[in-house]
Amino acid sequence: MSASPPLVVITGPSGVGKDTILDLLREDLSNVYVPVTATTRKPRLSEIDGVDQLFYDNEGFDSLIKNNSLIEWAEVYGERYGVPKSQIDNARSLGKELIVRTDVQGAFSIKEYDPSSVLIFISPPSLDSLSHRLESRGGITVDQIQTRLSAAELEMEKADLFDYVVINETDNLEGTINVLQGILIDLGFSLKNN
């Protein structure tokens, strides 16, 4: 039996399309597991606890940190996010192939936790295109957009520290998915039979 593929971390600036990309990748991968992130953020209207995110109050999240239950955690835009160790361990015990979605800071923490992990940075084609994506999302203020763009600029400066950089071109999501599938197949991930 061949060795399991490495844990893959997908990251990139807020608004670059990580969730959409992951949803599409999952449709074509036969044995993948994406851990559900723990957060102190309040759920959005359509979100389900345990499916979209694991929603904690501050006290509950403090307990996760105190008990060393997260492989990484960070404060992002005033809320805390982290990846539970139990989800990684359970998925590995079931022979699942793992993809973790996190912020840039979290990606480097995961690399420390698991040096064999592979880091993939999803980049927008430009800050202007990212600005348009954030504006079209709705639900965030002009100040929040500026904060996210400033953070994105700093994150994009670190892109060369990643194993792979994939540009999510505007109006070419299929091309982005094809590039990522190629990387994952090269790493040993299993595609569904079409």
Would you kindly provide a written description of the structure presented here, covering whatever features stand out?
The chain is α/β, with parallel strands linked by helices and 194 residues long. The chain has one domain: Rossmann fold (3-Layer(aba) Sandwich), CATH 3.40.50. The chain has 7 helices and 9 strands, in the order βαβββαββαβαβααβα. The strands form 2 sheets. A 5-stranded parallel sheet has the order 2-7-1-8-9, sandwiched between helices. A 4-stranded mixed sheet has the order 4-3-6-5. β5 and β6 (79-84) form a beta hairpin. α5 packs antiparallel against α6. The longest helix has 15 residues, at 142-156. The mean pLDDT is 91.
Rg on CA atoms, Å: 16 Å
Reported CATH architecture: 3-Layer(aba) Sandwich
Number of strands: 9
Contiguous runs where pLDDT drops below 50 for at least 5 residues: none
Structural class: alpha/beta
**How many structurally independent domains?**
1
Q: DSSP strand (E) fraction?
A: 15-25%
Order of helices and strands: EHEEEHEEHEHEHHEH
What form results from the Cα inertia axes?
globular
CATH homologous superfamily name?
Answer: P-loop containing nucleotide triphosphate hydrolases
Share of helix, binned: 40-55%
- In the CATH scheme, the class would be Alpha Beta
